[in-house]
Specification:
By secondary structure, this protein is of the alpha+beta class. The protein is 43% helix and 32% strand. It has helices spanning 2-19, 23-26, 57-93, 99-121, 127-143, 149-154, 156-159, and strands spanning 31-36, 39-41, 53-56, 163-176, 179-189, 192-201, 215-230, 236-252. The strands form two sheets. The chain has a five-stranded mixed beta barrel with strand order 4-5-6-8-7. Strands 2-1-3 form a three-stranded antiparallel beta sheet.
Length: 255
């Protein structure tokens, strides 16, 4: 038996020398020497209780790579099975018969929380009220027109009671118990905004973000003809008036 081990070691050494002998020798197949008892390759196994097995290095490398890949996949499968078992246990602990039902409930809860967060950010108490408001705004948007300042100022009777949709820059915002009174410039030019209208607006709740000076807003509401308001000089200015149902901040303008 010791003779066989000695022969195996000698063959391995000779092969190594031949591989390093030069280009002509390097083209010859190289071999590894494997032992079944104990399992392993020389030189990691020094003493083999059985015959050394000569294996061509290139094919053996490929086989070992395949075995390593197989082992990796098997381990991944074990981990996936373990994960699924843990997930199913968590689902059942939460009262759901399947993982799919649990995931669906989680997704529904996430959606509900996101909708509630959006509703409260807009000043609404719950998602249902917010959705109803969005539907109402969409209906107004379908019916609304966007007349120019000149058209509203020159033809107030023609537009009285009309649903309008306007965009402008807030130049003054006053809040009191009755709501907000805003002066908004609605004509955009290359040099800024001009043409003031008077807008009255009732916020949804105290939680609704306030509209401030220089906010650029989009509003949906009813045209109420011409209104007067006192100017700094003490004289009354007459401008188109809008009773806004919805007000949305879309940016900030230049002062």
């Amino acid at each position: 038996m010791s003779a066989r081990r000695g022969v195996g070691a000698a063959i391995f050494a000779i092969t190594a020398v031949m591989a390093a002998a030069g280009p002509a020798r390097a083209q010859q197949p190289q071999y590894w020497y494997y032992c079944d008892d104990p399992k392993g390759y020389f030189p990691y196994v020094q003493n083999c209780k059985t015959n050394w097995q000569e294996r061509e290095a290139a094919s053996e490398t490929f086989r070992l790579q395949q075995e390593a890949e197989k082992a990796r996949r098997e381990e991944a499968a074990r981990q996936e099975k373990k994960r699924r078992a843990a997930e199913l246990a968590a689902a059942k602990a939460a009262g759901f018969p399947t993982v799919e039902a649990w995931r669906a409930a989680q997704e529904a809860e996430r959606k509900s929380q996101a909708e509630l967060k959006a509703a409260r950010a807009a000043g609404y108490a719950d998602a249902a009220a917010f959705e109803a408001a969005l539907n109402e705004r969409a209906d107004l948007d379908r019916r609304a027109t966007s007349p120019s300042y000149d058209d509203l100022a020159r033809n107030p009777v023609q537009h009285n009671g009309e649903v309008v949709r306007l965009v402008g820059r807030v130049i003054e915002a006053v809040y009191d118990a009755a709501g907000a009174t805003l002066r908004i410039e609605i004509t955009k030019t290359n040099y800024g905004w001009k043409d003031v209208i008077l807008c009255v607006y009732q916020p949804v709740s105290e939680q609704e973000p306030r509209t401030l000076q220089n906010d650029v807003v989009k509003l949906w509401g009813i045209f109420n003809g011409i209104a007067s308001y006192p100017t700094i000089s003490g004289q009354a200015a007459q401008v188109p008036k809008i009773s806004a149902r919805f007000l949305e901040r879309i940016g900030a303008g230049q002062s």
